[in-house]
Structure formats: C-alpha cells, structure tokens
Amino acid sequence: MTDVQLGMPELPAPDYPADVRARLEADAREVIARYPDSRSALLPLLHLVQSEEGHVTRTGMRFCAEVLGLTTAEVTAVATFYTMYRRKPSGDYQVGVCTNTLCAVMGGDAIFEELKQHLGVGNKETTEDGKVTLEHIECNAACDFAPVVMVNWEFFDNQTPESAKRLVDDLRAGRPVTPTRGAPLCTFRETARILAGFPDTRPGAVEAGGGAGPASLIGLKLAKGEALPPRVVHPRGETAEEPPRDRAPHDRPIAGSGHLSSHDAPQQTSASDPKHPAGPVSEEGE
Amino acid sequence: MTLAPAIGETSPEKLLSPVLSAFWDDPRPWSLDTYRRHEGYEGLRKALAMTPDEVIAYVKESGLRGRGGAGFPTGMKWQFIPQGDGKPHYLVVNADESEPGTCKDIPLLFANPHALIEGIVIACYAIRSSHAFVYLRGEVVPVLRRLHEAVREAYEAGYLGRDVLGSGLDLELTVHAGAGAYICGEETALLDSLEGRRGQPRLRPPFPAVAGLYACPTVVNNVESIASVPAILHRGKDWFRSMGSEKSPGFTLYSLSGHVAAPGQYEAPLGITLRQLLDMSGGMRPGHRLKFWTPGGSSTPMFTDEHLDVPLDYEGVGAAGSMLGTKALQCFDETTCVVRAVTRWTEFYAHESCGKCTPCREGTYWLVQLLRDIEAGKGRPSDLDKLADIADNINGKSFCALGDGAASPIFSSLKYFREEYEEHITGRGCPFDPARSTAWADNHVEVTA
Fold it and tell me: Where is the composition biased (Basic and acidic residues) (chain A) (predicted)?
C-alpha cells in the first residue's frame, strides 16, 4: 500500500555519488547526441540508470530529469508506463514466461505454475538469494518456438516445465546457461546497458547462437527441396519424454481464472514499494 | 500478368519463394560480407542512379503494400511527404513487433539486418530524409546486438553517414530500444514514445506524413515493408509483380505457429492458402485437427477449418471477413478451449490498453471480468450478449486500433463458437483439459510418428 501523505511534500531523491554521476553523465551525453531532440533520449537513459542500480530508482529518475531539463514528474510518468523498467530491487536474472494465448496453450501456463511452486515466489517476485525474479510476460515474437521463456530478454525456446526448472536451478547455482538463440547470458544490469544503446563488447557476442533458429529455417529448407528436419528438440539436454501429469481436474491450473496475473490488477505506482516508501524519512542510497 | 499458385499445387519448391530468408542458413547471414555475397546493396546502387521521385514512383508501381498489418501502399506513404517544405523529414521503422502471434520481423532482423538497413537508405533517399530511426521493441536483446553490429558495419562501409556512396546523401541511423509496451506498435504512439513520452496514440489528422516525429513529416514503415524494397529495386518491379495477385503483389513471410507439425517461417507469394502451407509441412500435429486460427495475429478475426482455402492476401482475407494483418498464422487444434484463448487475449488487451480512451480502457476491463466468470463456470446466459455489446462499444470508438483489435476475437469467436461459450455457462465450467493442449501432451505417440 502507498503511505498516506496528506500533501506532505517529498524531499528530492539523493544524487548519485560524484564519480558515478560523472560516469553516467558522459554516457548520457553520448545517448543524447543520437537524437535531434534531447527528450528522445529518455527511454535509453532510463535503461542506463537501470543498468546502474538494477532498477529505476528515484535517484535515477532525478538524474534523467536533470540531464534532460525535465521535471521528475515528467520522468516518473514515463518510467511508470513501460513494463521493462523495474521499480524495486530485483534479481540478477529476470525470468519471463510467455503466457499470452499461444504460448500459454502450448504449455506456458503449466511452466509458469511449476516455476512459481519450484521457486516459491509469485509473479514479479524475487527468490531470497536475489538471483531470480519471476514474471509472466506477453508475446515476445517467437511463437514458432513456443513455449518461450526469456531470461534477461534472451530466448529460451521450446521449453517444458522440466527444462525451465533446470534453467532456474542453474541460474541460482551460478552454472553457465546458454540461450537457444543469441549470446551467452549477461546479468540484468549488463543487459540494460545494451538496451541503452551501448553495444555488447564481449568477443563473439554477435556471432553466438548461429544464424537463425531451427524454426526460422523450415520454409527455406522446404523451398530448397530438403526434407523437414525431425521435430525441434528441447534445448539443454531435454529428453522427449515428459512424465504424464496425472492430476485430478480440480488440481490443474484453471486457465484464465487461475491466472493470477498483473493483467488488470491495480499496479503499484512508482514510489509505492514498501521498502522505499515515498516519504521524507527514507531515501534510497542511505 | 500475375501468377498465383495453382490451388492444387503442393510442391514447396514451387509454392515458396524465399527472398528475405534466402540465405538465413548461411553460417553468418547477418554479416555485411554474406549480405554482399547475395547481391546486397545492389538495389541501393540502382536507386541512387534514379532521382528520388523516380524511386518513389518505382516502389509505388511495384505495388508493395505495408507488411505491418494495415496493408497501405508503401510508395504512396512516401509520396505523401511534402517536398520543399524546408522541414526535416524522418523515416521511422516500426520494429516493435508485439502483436500476439507475430514473429516475422524478429527472426528477419536476427538473420538479415542489412536488408532493413539497405531499405532504409533507399527510403531516406526517396523521401529526402537525413535521419532515420529503428524503433525496436526492447525485449529482444539478441536482435538488438545484431542490429547494432549491422549499423556499425554499414557506417564503416559508407552506406550510412556522410555522402552515402558519393551520392550527396547524408544519413544518420539511430537504433532505439523500446521498454515494453504493445501500444508503441501503433504508429502515433510509437512517435510519442520515440519523443520520450508515454506511448499514447495521437488523434489523426494530422497524419505522420504531415506532422509526425517532432511535428515534422515522417514516414513510419514496418520492418518487412522496408526490407522488401532493396529486392524490388534490384530485381525489378515486374519480377515483384510476377508473384502474388494484381492488388497484392509480391512475396511475404508467413509465420506458422501453434499445434502444427512444423511451426516456422514460410516465405511465399501472397495468396498462398493455409491448406497449402499445412500440406507441405506435415499438417497439424499428428492425430489432431485444426479448430481455429488467426490469419494475422490476435487482432484479426479468427477463422476456422472452413477457411483453409482462403487466399492469404489482402483482398482474399478481407473478403472472408478478417484481415491479412501480420500473416501470423496461429493454429489451434481441437484440444484448445476457445473461451480460454479469447480470455487470455482479452487480458492482454486490457493490460496493454494505454488508458487514453475510455471505451478501450473501461471496455477491455469489463470484458475480462465477464470472460473470467464465464470460463470459471460463473457466467449467465445474458453475458454473451453483454460481451458482444461491450465489444461493439469499443470497436471503432477509440483513437487507435487497439480497441478494435480487442473486439475482433470476441466478435469472431461468438460467431463461430457461441455454443462453446454456452457450454461453459450451462455446464458450469470449462469442459477442456489444458494438459492436452501442451506441446508435450502427445510425446508418447510422437515417438512413432
């Protein structure tokens, strides 16, 4: 719940330490220079401050406002509109299970339910070790690889409950994890920096994962007269067999009604995180 | 003359026409080297030998239509940009691919980003723009990586930057990552977002061609539309028109997904049918039959197995009561509950409604309440008419098409599957077992398939 403030004005957020501020300002200048109008840099700058602290803090929003000549209210209005900006401390790995219709039907609902059980967290909650934040996500433009799980916005295609559980176990244990398409995983903060427009400088990052995923090539292979490849196998050593799930009908997740999601539940507004109440007594960074 | 594939034709070699996807199986298809080996940037050379107006006319005559959903003629969009107005002109590429079921631009950009960049240079030359933007949805970092790299390569090779290939064209290209909002795929919301604001649609007119980005004349095109331009310039408009139909010429990417044997990307002339695509690719998953499908994403009214022979072009799908949309062919078999599917899509629209227009914001909310009740067996018979009435109060009554998209699955599912809704109400619950719909439900039989 948001604290009742009765019109008490909120003190400005504290600034970044001087060295951090200087470094971010240099980055911000580079971002702003890409646009004819500086305000266009706001979305990338919010990614940038997210790469600094792992979520968008009031300090981060103050920084964006100052370098762009906006009010913090204007920045907050934007930061709270977009779902990729996290508004509270969250895990190193953002694990998103697609539960839009196609992925949900193909198994995304079952994967999401199993991961909630397995990790003991709900939607948008983080494991106690601070490693994994679980959420359900909307269609991520990979329907031919359904069901899809995203980790830090890298593709983990053709998942099953078993492969997804192994994936989060590996993430929590610090074992290396390879997306089915794309580069080796980086942490959430490193990902946010790429999103701010700073290319991934790791050697081989662009090459990794090959040219195109198997499903992307199916039409091309047919057009070339090649036989269809066998069914796409599950990644990460998944076997074809999944134990039959023998559950009484009332135990199984009821689609839709059992989908306790954020879909149209009241959303927290920016400063409503209980650990960071919007009041003069508590400031981030203290 | 146009050549539509014969209805009885089943050979994939004859039915498919890989152009954008032609070399995705090369070892490094995203690189400039590979792209050049496949005649990349040749279309640009031809364009630069023409005047900008000639390029616009050429693209117009090719008949290329927008691949992002609405199907508006691309050349005409370019022609709407007022020339000699003294204002900067902008090209903004809509790479915010988020329509449920749509998955063509993301693999295209992952495997072949230079097709887009070459198309951007040609388009900017034509509309006299010196600054272009690619608005890529943020949730696809592997694609962003390759786009960054492709832009770097293009600058280094002189396809971007000052005096492109000695033509006198100066062109900056900015890759801009979004931050998670379906609404930003709507072109005016995208422009607001690109200006650093909440992504909310604008009232039109004025259209972006007159007052778009920073209130300057702006062309907003889909990735696939722009990426198709280089091949048209290089291989000719007659070649392009030899595919598809008179009003829907050319090739396009069809994305097959769901309960099919071989989900994936199929590049074919416009006008191919779902039956042809399924016949060549092993059909539905073994032992199951098609129940309902979308021709172009969740916002396009759904079809059933009655529509297997509808030509998948703008006119054909339109005549059958839906829209070609993004050619996102999401196929669901008989294990799938249509009420569950529509409920989930409606939850999506409610979540993604930007809140600007009351009919959409409130209407989608109430649709979700009703649908959840129906699905949980708590619905009343009168709820079905109420659903239709609310959908009717959303459709066409908001600034942008998100609300119309939300109404589509409601109207079409009630049209084809009203009995299934009634079953949920009279039977006090959902008669389907979601476990049977999963990708792994039939693994024990697939071993022998």
Answer: 235-253
User: Whole-angstrom Cα distance, residue B164 to residue A99?
Assistant: 45
CB contact under 8 Å between A143 and B196, yes or no, is no
User: Could you report the average pLDDT of every consecutive run of 10 residues in chain B (449 residues)?
Assistant: 56 94 97 98 98 98 96 97 96 98 98 98 98 98 98 98 97 98 97 98 96 98 98 98 96 98 98 97 96 98 98 98 98 98 98 96 98 97 98 96 97 98 96 97 61
Say what the ipTM of the complex is: 0.95
Q: DSSP label at A106?
A: I
Contact across the interface for B179 and A209, Cβ inside 8 Å = no
Q: How far is CA A268 from the centre of its chain?
A: 17
Residues of B in contact with A215 (CB under 8 A): 263-265
* Nearby residues of B189 by Cβ (< 8 Å), 6 or more positions away: B181, B183, B199, B200, B201, B202, B354, B400
With contact defined as beta carbons under 8 Å apart, do A280 and A8 qualify? yes
Given this model, what pLDDT does residue B391 score?
98
Q: A-contacting residues of B 13-72, CB under 8 Å?
A: 13, 16-18, 21-22, 24-30
Give the distance, in angstroms, between the CA of residue B265 and the centroid of all CA atoms in the same chain: 13
Single pTM value for the model: 0.91
Right CATH number for A91-186+214-260 from 3.40.30.10, 3.30.565.10, 3.90.226.10, 3.40.630.30? 3.40.30.10
* Minimal CA separation from A7 to chain B, in Å: 25
The Cα–Cα gap between B228 and B250 comes to 9
User: Do B177 and A47 lie within an 8 Å CB cutoff?
Assistant: yes
- Hey, is the C-beta of B448 within 8 angstroms of any chain A C-beta? no
Does A177 have pLDDT greater than 70? yes
Chain pair A-B, CB pairs under 8 angstroms = 322
Length of chain A: 286
The pairing of strands B251-258 and A154-156 is unpaired
Query: Residues 186..215 of A with a Cβ closer than 8 Å to B: which?
Result: 191, 194-197, 199-200, 205-207, 209-215
Q: pLDDT digit string (tens) for A28-46?
A: 999 999 999 999 999 999 9
Nearest-by-Cβ selection for B181 from A82, A231, A245: A82
Instruction: Count the Cβ atoms, other than its own, within 10 Å of residue B98.
Output: 23
Count of CB atoms situated within 10 Å of the CB of A262: 15
Contacts of B428 in chain A (CB under 8 A): none
Q: Which two tokens stand for residue A234?
A: 């599950």
Domain ranges of chain A: 1-89, 91-186+214-260
B382 in helix, strand or coil?
Answer: helix
In a domain, B108, yes or no: yes
Residue of B nearest to A160 (CA): B440
Q: Which residues of B touch A46 (CB under 8 A)?
A: 179
